[in-house]
Specification:
The chain is α/β, with parallel strands linked by helices. It has 17 helices and eight strands. It is found in: Endoplasmic reticulum membrane; Microsome membrane.
Length: about 375
């Protein structure tokens, strides 16, 4: 009693979710929603890749259409982008207009699972470059959060000549060296000396609380998925209720850390149950939870400092949207160590980990601002 979400998904609230799912949720209606954008499938390197491809219905005379590849993460899906797509594909005033391509990562949703061990973000990056090439694009913009941010950053490292710009709402940083430790220690007292802003300090300190204890509390799933994903996955593949609890708990605390204290996990303050359950259903009907969890093992079972992308820098124009409720905050001064050409860095006023799903308007505005700057419009 009174546990809210401190022990994980609240069992009383779960009964409400299950009751709604059984009695009111209309999957056929949600399939119609999913089908409002065109779906495609193509085979790349022997794997069937699912993607949606949305072109603007109207393009003003003389306006260039920018191709934009948007990549999701875990436990999300291509569906995360459904609210942001219309904001990007409808030209407003003299703003840029995009055609948007949203693939499902192999092993997620309607993309086939990889056939062999070792399929990591670099392999996904290679496949998505081939996808864009197959669609006839020579140059394109990239956007990602969660695993999508790592995949798109790898794409920028791999073929920089094809990437016009990279926009991220989560930053993966490599090894934490002595310089970073000194920066953390000095940052609490003389932040300006180590390049930290007031807002960085507000978001990062007290450092142990926000970057160690909070992270430790939220990363239990990561240790399981990075080591023995199939064991936990068996139960989730067998139980729709277990699957819903496992996935939706992340949509609570990763959206806002304070939702831990709410009996309903704050879920319906940001999303509708239809939206949340549609994402769960994408995992359920495709039996893809195990293959999606394996992606952690493929990426985290080797020394992060020894991977091919660890020491490579990103030189393409980069835009960063730093949302205040993101799991970890990366200051611009730290991001610059890897991303050598940061064009825009925005402290977003609100929002968390699932930015496109939760705050589509804010994210769309930041993407447009970044692309305008790159294109010098």
């Amino acid at each position: 009693e009174g546990a809210a979400f401190h022990y994980g998904f609240n069992s009383s609230y779960l009964q409400k979710v299950v009751s709604y799912w059984r009695n009111q949720f209309d999957w056929r209606k949600q399939v119609e929603v999913l089908n409002k954008y065109p779906h495609f499938q193509t085979t790349i390197e022997g794997i069937d890749i699912h993607f949606i491809h949305v072109k603007p219905s109207y393009v003003p005379h003389g306006r260039a259409v920018q191709p934009l590849l948007m990549v999701h993460g875990w436990p999300g899906s291509f569906y995360e982008f459904y609210k942001i797509i219309p904001l990007l594909t409808k030209p407003a005033g003299d703003d840029v207009v995009f055609e948007v391509i949203c693939p499902s990562i192999p092993g997620y949703g309607f993309s086939e699972a990889p056939h062999q061990k070792g399929f990591d973000t670099i392999a996904a990056a290679r496949i998505f470059h081939k996808l864009m090439n197959r669609l006839g694009f020579k140059e394109y913009y990239l956007q990602g959060g969660d695993w999508g941010s790592r995949i798109t950053a790898n794409m920028a490292q791999m073929l920089p000549q094809s990437v016009k710009g990279l926009h991220l709402n989560l930053i993966f940083l490599g090894q934490q060296g002595l310089r970073r430790m000194i920066s953390v220690m000095l940052g609490a007292y003389v932040p300006w000396l180590v390049g930290l802003t007031r807002e960085d300090v507000r978001r990062m300190y007290p450092f142990l609380q926000k970057n160690f204890y909070d992270l430790l509390r939220e990363s239990g799933y990561l240790h399981i998925q990075a080591t023995k994903p199939d064991t936990a996955g068996c139960g989730l593949n067998d139980s729709p209720v277990g699957l819903a609890a496992y996935i939706l708990e992340k949509f609570s605390t990763w959206t806002d850390k304070s939702f831990l204290h709410k009996d309903d996990g704050g879920l319906e303050s940001k999303y509708s149950l239809d939206e949340l359950l549609t994402n769960v259903m994408i995992y359920w009907v495709t039996s893809s939870i195990v293959s999606s969890m394996r992606f952690y093992k493929e990426n985290l079972s080797k020394d992060p400092g020894l991977t091919a992308d660890a020491r490579a820098r990103v030189h393409v124009p980069t835009g960063i949207a730093a949302f205040p409720q993101e799991i970890v905050h990366t200051p611009r001064v730290w991001a610059k160590e890897t991303f050598k050409n940061i064009v825009t860095y925005s402290y977003m006023p609100r929002g968390g980990h699932f930015a496109a799903f939760e705050e589509p308007k804010l994210l769309a505005e930041d993407i447009v601002r970044f692309v305008r700057k790159v294109e010098q419009l």
